[in-house]
Amino acid sequence: MTRIAYLGPAGTFTEAAARRFDLPDPDFVPVDSPAAALDAVRAGEAEFAVVAIENSVDGAVTSTSDALVEAGVQILAETELDIAFAIMSRRGFSLDDASSLTTHPVAYQQVKGWISEHLPGVEFVSASSNAAAARMVADGEADVAAAPERAAELFDLEIHARGVADMDSARTRFVLVGPVRVPPARTGNDRTSIVFQTPNEPGTLVAILQEFAYRGVDMSRIESRPTRQEPNTYNFFVDLVGHVDDAPVAEAMRGVYLRASWVRFLGSWPKASGALAPVDQTRIADAEAWVRAAREGQTQTEGER
Amino acid sequence: MTRIAYLGPAGTFTEAAARRFDLPDPDFVPVDSPAAALDAVRAGEAEFAVVAIENSVDGAVTSTSDALVEAGVQILAETELDIAFAIMSRRGFSLDDASSLTTHPVAYQQVKGWISEHLPGVEFVSASSNAAAARMVADGEADVAAAPERAAELFDLEIHARGVADMDSARTRFVLVGPVRVPPARTGNDRTSIVFQTPNEPGTLVAILQEFAYRGVDMSRIESRPTRQEPNTYNFFVDLVGHVDDAPVAEAMRGVYLRASWVRFLGSWPKASGALAPVDQTRIADAEAWVRAAREGQTQTEGER
């Protein structure tokens, strides 16, 4: 059995994402937060965790970012899901009678346009997950839930509308997380993630980002989060285009190590989508060959662009 | 009457912050979100809005950031509140019988250590504000609320614990927002905020941040948020140390204008705390004098550091 911890209960988008990774003989273990999913891996109670990391409408999933800071886990793979909701109630309930609607707060951001148009004036009640929202409706704690279609099956609810999403392009990226290991092999279309803190001096953040820029390593995401240890100190999360086995990424990471006050490698893994220009490795390979040639007394000691 | 829109109902920390600004003859108008508060200013329904912008534990208040992107408002002042909660219930209720606790989700992040120690196993119920949480307890929708002390008075609740906060240093920064105008005068301890989007090319974010770094303008905050217009496009929010009337800040802003695909000035205003090294204006004033001297045919045409 492969134990996979995910934000439960059954019926969440995270469960759908977890099933996408096609792990052998899976045993899906619902837990109640992204932090609990990662802690299950850290404690050896699960081989893997699946957590949402970024949403195209609401940005980074901050609870996941915060939970990744602590040692012992590494991102191994990702998948992206189109996010659209079904509007559901107990059987026989008319939407005209609805006075409350429940869903996860991030989900609420993605349907509130539809809600204000179709269910004006309903009170929003926060749920710990979309599937928990469906369960709350089944239990009579709210009239209507916005949740994945599968949750209606699981909790025997009636669906009133499908494919509800204020933005057509709403997508959430989920990552597969496991214990620290040799990263999955470079594919040429990879993502690398690191988190770092900067010394308390002006300009250090820019100096670190410059390590990527002048090696042509593209940043696909930057996010700052309070460390919660000292006021005005931040963890900076940066996603890079490329793999730690790409020489420019490795060189940039060395540069970050030298400038940051603290840094952790969060993983290199294949991207779920988007054929990107592969990282240009020629110049750095040339530079290494040139330094090696100089050390070895070879005659090939010139370099030109 | 000075109409001041804030995240209501009465009894929220935002109301306490709004009272701190000491506006003449205030009429506090509760609304149900930071966006609604800013829209009230845009529509001329309120002279000012007071909104939370950053919390030392949970980071930027993303709903406020998103609401600031649209034109028509400007940040004019700020204040910081220590955030600590009172734990309250209906009169005569014993905490031993508590099965549910309600508060705003951001507040919950700041008390959940205390909750898991003192009220293990209670269910968290999300509230739209801390004061709404107190009202929910008064209405019997939850057993216990974590809310500002004043909310207990307003809703006639009994306080069981005061000063509850997992981190001693938890503070929230609130800003006073009004229609666009000439910014408040430079004090020498100011903050400037801008939001921009970058052209879709690698390295442009770093190039923009470099505009600050090489002029010695310190960034006190950076945050990225999806634009919600196109996938993978972001609004970057940057807070700078200094005033738009400080020459290095003005120069850096000109540089950002030239590099960004879109930029909006969100305001320059006095900082609430922290005596910072004033922005060094000498070099840029010298540089301007030198260029003017050259134009005017003066003999003072040399420059040295």
UniProtKB/TrEMBL annotation, chains A, B:
User: Gene that codes for this?
Assistant: pheA
The UniProt site entry described as Essential for prephenate dehydratase activity is assigned to: T172
Catalytic activity reported = prephenate + H(+) = 3-phenylpyruvate + CO2 + H2O
The chain positions of domain ACT read 193-268
List cellular component terms (GO).
cytoplasm
Tell me the protein's name. Answer: Prephenate dehydratase
The record's Gene3D superfamilies line, in alphabetical order, gives: 3.30.70.260, Periplasmic binding protein-like II (3.40.190.10)
Q: Which PROSITE patterns match?
A: ACT (PS51671), PREPHENATE_DEHYDR_2 (PS00858), PREPHENATE_DEHYDR_3 (PS51171)
Instruction: Give this protein's Gene Ontology molecular function annotations.
Output: prephenate dehydratase activity
- InterPro entries hit by this protein: ACT-like_dom_sf (IPR045865), ACT_dom (IPR002912), Chor_mutase/pphenate_deHydtase (IPR008242), Preph_deHydtase (IPR001086), Preph_deHydtase_CS (IPR018528)
